[in-house]
Amino acid sequence: MDAMVSGRVPVQVKEHGARILAEIGATQSQLIQAAYEYLIAEGKLPAPAEKLRGGGALKEQDIKDLEDFINKTTVKVDPSFWEGFDLKEELARGRAADYEALA
Fold this sequence. Notes:
Layout: H1 11-24, H2 28-42, H3 49-52, H4 60-73, H5 87-102
């Protein structure tokens, strides 16, 4: 006989997890079973809860890597480039082009 287990998780975590479970052809029951089996075998949770929520401070190397990435992917643009630029107008133009491509 199987036992019923219930718990609470944030809606976004449940929805994201359900999508991944569907992609890999697994069920929520299989996920819970695997979590219990891991706990029994390892005597700990699969990952600290703060890592799952993105909490905690960045390590010094992580900060350096992030700064390097930003510097490599940032492009300097002359301020005159933005003169007369209207974000709402550009978004509307882009949406119209996307919808025309679908038609």
